[in-house]
Amino acid sequence: MGRAEKWKHHAALSLVVFLSFLYSAQSAKNPTYYYDQCAPSTCGNSVVRFPVGLNPLCRSAYISSSCENGSLYITEDEAPRTKYKVLDTMNDTVYARGYFMMVDVSLLGCDPIAPFLDQAWQRWLMAGNFLMSSDYKTGTFFNCTRAPDADMRGRLTEAPCLECGNTTNLCYFYDGYMDQIPNCRPFRVAMPSTMVNNFTGVGNLRRKLQEGFRVQWESPCGAACMLTQTSPGRCGFVDEDRNKGGEVCFCNSTVHQTSCSDGIIVSLGGAKSNKNIMIAGIVVGIAFVILGICYACVRRRRQIRLKIEARGQDEQALRRYLDNKNIPASIETFLENYAYGMPTRFSYKQIKRYSNNFSDKLGQGGFGSVFKATLPNGGIVAVKLLDETEQSETQFLNEVRTVGQIHHNNLVRLLGFCFQKSKRALVYEFMENGSLEKYIHRKNKPPSERLNWNQLYDIALGTARGIAYLHEECRSRILHCDIKPHNILLDKKFQPKVSDFGLAQLMNREHSHVTLSGGRGTPGYAPPEMWWKNYGPITEKSDVYSFGMVILEMVGGRRNFDADASKASEMYFPEWVYRHHVLHNGDGSASSNNSSSSSSSSSNNNSSEGNRFTGSKWNMCEGEEEEEMARKMELVGLWCIQFSPGKRPSMRKVVEMLEGIVGIEAPPVPFDATISQLGRPM
């Protein structure tokens, strides 16, 4: 088949597909179609219809509903990970009164409660036709491993904990919204107004909250449409995008505004006599549009090919650029799609002026240099001026589409960017204390550049929270792929923020791993599967490994691999830690209980260098509290660097370990037998 014949074949096929689509669209304009679509369905003993129908056409805007094991569940479209169970049996009585009870499913049973997402705080105060009854309020519970400071405690009310059984944690309540408190985990709950700041006599708080909260709805199409005995209709939406327009009343042969007897008919399309003319016109018009698009695509592809060839790129680089679906051919189009309304776009002239002609250099990275700059409002920012390479262009796109659209206390914030001809720059919030790297490698460091154990522990916990947010709480999971001390920045209060998303990968939630064309990350922090495929695919557990290597360097106050160590057994610090603090006590004797939790084992480790556990021989601990923090960090680090990805915990589990929500058992041998020194003479 020649090129011309192939073109004709594809054009004809496109027309057939379009005509089939048009026929289906016209069928959907029939009122009977909508009436049948919104027929009541059953879920257990409930009759399910508007405003909680299972069909998207037949439920309120902004929510989704599902039937699972005979129970009706509802989620809010902008926060689909939080699910609510409807407690009432839905019937005519419930629909007539206009409200029902529901409960957050994370409160059911005794599983840990998931922390809320900031942007979804107001979700049940007003969602579509729904609003929470005025008899109920939302508040924030905090589960704390350590008591907040006095000023913060003055704003909180002591409250029962939400866990089942006994707990040593301290729990507080705040009437309203509060984001985060150090060493505390927040939970957003709805409760009766009478309970707010008054927990006396409540008894089992979790059981009380399992009674749920009341949600009511108001709708122009309600009882008048569905509960009329003479001519009942069915409420719903004409468009599956329920954000467009309001709900209507579907009747047997017509569509009305509020009821089948209101006399107000809603038109679904043009007159029948004009239908054929309209269809013919649309078909001809679309055919020409398709031809025009095909011509434009071929022409555009040819222009890009000529442009890249003119720049001296070889054929392999050209094909990689054209075939990569993650990098749009037009970066301008990409910026319109991904950066609209997000970071501010600066001109190169502005960037140059704000940075005083790039005079104050803060550091050098793999893809460019970082400079200090001052905005017109006096705000201090950091400007990363990217090198003019293909790799830096990829990093530019990655940064804008990932960190440009997410916000978390432990992720560095992208404030703006510059894309002008060959110039690429990224503008970040300024981090006064620089990177973690300059503080944790302590050799010959003055005391002013050393962090105490409380600071180290808080940095580890904050970093874990930031990575967990990337893995679990974004619309698409984000794999950082380059976690290392240099990419963990510290603000003026030494709060950590994960930075540098140039190698990041987006992973749809229905996918379990990503495929990379080659290894990436930094040697010493990148997991084995990043370089050797036989260790498994690239998943979020790859970031867990890198975090484990970082936390062990924080404990040791040195790089994990030290070629200058006096003994071969001390060259690889993670193995030294495992040998001395897991397999044996500090004095070299065999450990009597290798599965004890950190809380019971720290006081039993006697170092040959003294009577107390030292955390490591390079970084002395003072007092039992510091010993416990060092022990926890060591065990968490050893769990994270397991060579087998399946043995590594999730970042959410890592956060819970560091917060003290779950105990930490001694990990198995984390190293590959062909690499490890374990079992060899010391």
UniProtKB/TrEMBL annotation:
GO terms (molecular function) for this protein are: ATP binding; protein serine/threonine kinase activity
- What's the protein's topology in the membrane? Single-pass type I membrane protein
> Principal place where this protein is found?
membrane
UniProt domain Protein kinase: residue ranges: 356-662
Compositional bias of kind Low complexity: 591-608
**Which keywords accompany this UniProt record?**
ATP-binding, Glycoprotein, Kinase, Membrane, Nucleotide-binding, Serine/threonine-protein kinase, Signal, Transferase, Transmembrane, Transmembrane helix
Instruction: Show the stretches that span the lipid bilayer.
Output: 277-298
Sites where the protein binds ATP: 384
Q: Is Ribonucleoprotein included in the keywords of this UniProt record?
A: no
Its subcellular locations are: Membrane
For region Disordered, the annotated ranges are 587-617
Q: Could you say which residues form the signal peptide?
A: 1-27
Q: A GO CC term?
A: membrane
**Pfam families, alphabetized:** Pkinase (PF00069)
**How is this protein named in the record?**
Protein kinase domain-containing protein
